[in-house]
Here is the input.
Amino acid sequence: MERNEAALAIEAMDVEKKQTYDHVEDIDALESEAQARDSANGTVGLTNADGEVLLVPHPSADPSDPLNMPLWRKWVFVIILSTFSCVGNTCVSAAGSLISFFLMDYVNAGKGYQDITNLITVPTLSMGLGNLVFMPIALAIGRRPVFLFSCALLFVGSVVASQVTNYEYHLAVRIVIGFAAGQSEALVPLMLKETFFLHERANILSFQAAFQTTVGCILTIFASNIAAAIGWKNWYSLYAGLSGFLFVVSFFFVPETAFERPLSAYASMTATVPDAVTDSSTVAARQAGGYTQATRPALDAEKYGPRTLRKTMRLWAGKSDWTEAWLVLKHTAQMLLFPNMLVIVLMNAWYLGVNIGMGTTYATLLEAPPYNWAPKWAGMAQLGQIVVAFVALPALGILSDKLITYMARRNGGVHEPETRLIPLVFPVCLGVLSTVLFGAAYADPYKFHWFVVIFAYCGSYFAFIAASVAGQTYMLDCYPTRSGVISFGLTYSLVPTTTAMGYLKAYGMYAGVMSIFALMAVALYFKGKTLRRWTLKYVKEDGDPSKPHYG
Here is the structure.
């Protein structure tokens, strides 16, 4: 087929877009437009005609491009960010195993169980609010300065928490800690996304979750023992040391991951071959587009300069763009109106809320009759999560990345984000079962072994993490030129609702809502692409349309 015939085929596919190119004789602009349109809603080419995996986004020849970091540097980077997530999250959540110690200290001040529970739930809310504050700033001035500030804030918060003298002071400091720790929910995944290719994301995010779970479980297990031995205030001193160390190593080894690349770098040719184009040479040329590991551009240190430690240690790597700060808030609100995004956000929020609800009550259940665990051993319930970390989470990540490659090859090289939802089947079923079991065990503990409580708690955690990984990769795949920065809130009515309804009915209701979200995810798998195309027409590009906006 001649090039003018190919142009007619593309014109028939999108007449309105062709009108903007009335004076363009070459069809390359039309092809680029079609690629950008398809990639904007997540449909991209992931394999070429030979079945080789394409690198999305396309790497540049600049040694400072985070996609071009040596493998050992990438893994040092991943471990540092994963450790930050672990330290921040456990400083907030591991306090659930210290509830008995907090009660002993604050009971004379007239504080009850709900007040102590607020020490865990309110900082979790501040983690989400921290995202809304710090993520716009990170998109405006860079990821590195915000990450370093969060490490420093976590350090200061932990030091101050070790010196608190009353409940109100303690709660206020923990809210600050939550603000710092919140970057593990949005900034860390964004930085990882900017350092790895599309076909690697689920594996990396699952590794981060597995690492965070393993180390976090160890810290949580020993939290109650530390509190029993030297007091819960000195427990905060441990986190002060860890966060201080993280700040130092991050200063040297965490580079700026924001990198300006053209919009076309997020698209691959195979995604946009029109049905009307059947000439073998034209199709072959289209499918040859994009880079593989073998054909990626060679690094050009002469033109761009080498990657050096001095470059890595710069606090600001480029000019600030406060437009991005406004866009992230605007587009976050906008994307919450998209049905596919709303389902994922609410699903994660609910699964997180149920897991936190269990996390604030399992210790009380195990310490009461008939189990009668000593308070210092309550943290041992976290051991089951290490199994989740070592077995389930890596398998989930590997399965997701392998699955999208396999499905893309079956689909003529084209990747659809809905494939990311398939691995959710088992975790969601386990989460529903675990929620019902936990409510039943709490309602009548004499009928259940203590292992049921631990199994249910760990099963719920696995369901939440699986939903989080799948949700993040799905959102990043759906809108690859925008950041997945929508943070998840927590339904703080869990404790009052449980008290009013009773544990069996309340957790039965929680499991029912989880099932509804699971069914909505199934519908999303079949109709997600239609929704993406429908919502795309409501996305108004702000500023330069040739530039990807992370907000």
About this structure: Strands lie at 44-45, 414-415. The chain has a mean pLDDT of 78. The chain has one domain: 66-257+319-536.
